[in-house]
Amino acid sequence: MQSFAGQVAVVTGAAGNLGRAVSRAFAAQGAKIAMVDRDAAALTSAQSELPAGAESDTFAADLLKPDAVADLAQRILARFGRVDILANIAGGFTMGPPLHETSDHVWDFMLDINARSVFHACRAFVPLLLQTGGGRIINVSARAALEGKAHMVPYCASKAAVITLTEGLAAEMKDAGINVNCVLPGTLDTPQNRAAMPDQDFGRWVPPAALADVMLFLASDAARCVTGAAIPVYGRS
């Protein structure tokens, strides 16, 4: 795997299961990590799991507030002096009622947490990547983005929006040295998913560390000609 020594990786949702795995993976390859999440205490816990000697800092921020995200970008720039990689991990999932019984609150919540958060982060950090002379953006969509599912319409729509955002931003940035891709995980093997689906075969699910490896590849020089892609990472789920 390529060394990311000297590069700065911004990881949103860094206090979650996947965010922690991605932060550890980039840190293990020498990257400096800017860990972003709403929960400052959880960020401190996640930071403690990084490899010994890793350079990192934590930044509590609400990605749904445009001014807060703009300020976040400037705080990270002031701390590290550059940004090379943006890993948009922040997001969430909830089942819901049939579409005709779905409230505005549920619809807005899914679109906000999964799509608006990515929009706000990309809008704030693309100018910093341009200052650096290029970089990588890796977004997290989902297999559910490819086919609408019953009782999951807001979630599916929000993750489909991430694919479209990825494709459009990749087209805009292809001559600026910024590659933009997304991953489409199947069921992640997390404690929360195990608790929610205790009768499933967990061995068929995708370990967060395996998805992190794919994201490291997309950030590496080996993926220099890959942009605008939606990469399925399903395991056997």
Kindly list the characteristics that best describe this protein.
single chain; 237 residues; alpha/beta; Rossmann fold; seven-stranded parallel beta sheet; 43% helix; globular
Poorly predicted ranges: none
Just name the CATH architecture: 3-Layer(aba) Sandwich
Q: How can the largest sheet be summarized?
A: 7 strands, parallel
Q: What is the overall pLDDT average?
A: 96
Please tally the helical runs, counting DSSP H or I stretches of 4 or more residues: 7
CATH top level? Alpha Beta
Question: What fraction, in percent, of the residue positions are helical?
Answer: 40-55%
Number of domains: 1
What is the β-strand count? 7
Spatial strand sequence of the major β-sheet: 3-2-1-4-5-6-7
Shape: globular
CATH topology: Rossmann fold
User: How many whole angstroms does the radius of gyration measure?
Assistant: 17 Å
* Residues in β-strands, percent: 15-25%
Q: For the record, give the distance between the C-alpha atoms at the N and C termini, rounded to a whole number.
A: 26 Å
Question: Given the helix and strand composition, which structural class is it?
Answer: alpha/beta
Structural features, described:
- This protein starts with 7 loop residues before the first strand and ends with a strand.
- The longest helix is centred in the middle third of the chain and has 29 residues, at 104-132.
- The chain has a single domain, classed as Rossmann fold (3-Layer(aba) Sandwich).
- The chain has helices at residues 17-28, 40-47, 66-80, 104-132, 153-173, 191-196, 208-219; strands at 8-12, 32-37, 56-60, 85-88, 135-140, 178-185, 230-233.
- The chain has a seven-stranded parallel sheet with strand order 3-2-1-4-5-6-7, with helices on both faces.
- By secondary structure, it is an alpha/beta fold.
- The chain is built from seven helices and seven strands.
- Helix 1 packs across helix 7 (208-219) and helix 4 packs parallel to helix 5 (153-173).
- The mean pLDDT is 96.
